[in-house]
Amino acid sequence: MKRHTYIFLGLLIIAAAISFSGCAGFVNGIKLTLAEKSFSEKAEQHNRDVLNYLSKHDAKSLKNMFCQEIRSTEDLDAQIKAAFDFIDGNIKVTEKTEFNSFGMNSSIENGKFLYYASMPSIIGIQTDKGKTYNIGFCEYFANKEHPSYVGIVVLNITTDDGRKCVVGRSLK
Q1: Is 44 strand, coil or helix?
Q2: Do the bridges between strand 112-118 and strand 104-109 make them parallel or antiparallel, or are there none, so unpaired?
Q3: Is residue 84 part of a domain?
């Protein structure tokens, strides 16, 4: 009987060690590390923040989400104002609005991220004037080669008829 108890305890300890070994969970069926889960959660929050700042015409907060490189080389104030003007009406989140934050690219070397980029999107945004918009953006959470790229680099707002407004620019 004692032997069975020790075997059971040993298996229990192994199971606990495996479950706490750095695997934080799954996103869309993909196993994530603790760092990746943190980045994924940040991407989800930033998705909602972008929509909130666009809804409230909060240019300062939206501008602060952009990376240092874009803030120093682009006329973000004018681009953000153009984005506010591009959206016709007041933004409404409905049951048709989808928040997606699963587009991610990364490179790891010796257990550390060289870069980690996310491409969140918000689909089916409605306005009180009956217009529909989609928003997508690219954001770096880590970029060892270009630390000034950490933050949003480009934000795209697209209408249902294909018109587009771009804030920032793609960086490579």
Answers
A1: helix
A2: antiparallel
A3: yes
Quote the CA–CA distance of 164 and 72 in Å, as a whole number. Answer: 23
Which pair of tokens denotes residue 169? 């620019």
Q: Work out the number of other CB atoms within 10 angstroms of the CB of residue 129.
A: 9
Please tell me what DSSP assigns to residue 150.
B
Domain membership of residue 104 as a residue range: 33-168
Total domains, the chain: 1
CATH number (domain holding residue 64): 3.10.450.50
Residue 76 covered by a domain: yes
Which residues of the chain are modeled with pLDDT < 50? 4-6, 8-32
- Assigned domain for 1 exists: no
Q: What is the pLDDT of residue 8?
A: 44
Q: What is the number of residues in the chain?
A: 172
Residue type at 144? K
The C-alpha atoms of residue 56 and residue 64 are separated, in whole angstroms, by: 15
In angstroms, the CA 133 to CA 162 distance is 9
CA 119 to chain CA centroid, nearest Å: 6
Rounded Cα–Cα distance for residues 75 and 57 (Å)? 17
What was the pLDDT predicted at 91?
94
Q: Is residue 7 part of a domain?
A: no
Amino acid type, 44: E
pTM for this model (two decimals): 0.76
> What rounded mean pLDDT belongs to the chain?
81
